[in-house]
Design goal:
single chain; Rossmann fold
Amino acid sequence: MCPGSFDPVTNGHVDVIARAAGLYDELVVAVLVNPGKAGLFSVDERMELLREAVADLPNVVVDSFSGLLVDYCRSHDVPVVVKGLRAVGDFEYELQMAQMNRELAGIETLFVPTAPQVGHLSSSLVKQIATFGGDVSRLVPKAVLDRLLAKRDGSA
């Protein structure tokens, strides 16, 4: 399982998902539902954009979850969580989460370092750049670019 907010999905996310999909028969990519946080895209929109972004990966299933990640993993027999790492700061946070997930439910975590060409990407930076009219065409899948532009221009 590869969890995240994916608001929006970036080429960095797609890189990690594609590489993880090559390791497993099935990979669940799950969007976290956080009712306390309003995203740019709704959970349904994020799931749709993810499905488009990974359409060429037949063993990837897109889903959503709320609550604890370990509860989703237990109820769906998911033994491994895959997390992408961009920098040392990511590792410090994710290591703590991995240790807690293992303590709570015996869930293992596989860390996948992002490819150097996408290691600088984050959804929040992409949103900020797009909001101010910057070019994000090399940072996100085509479907995401189209939706970002539509939102910026007020047609979505």
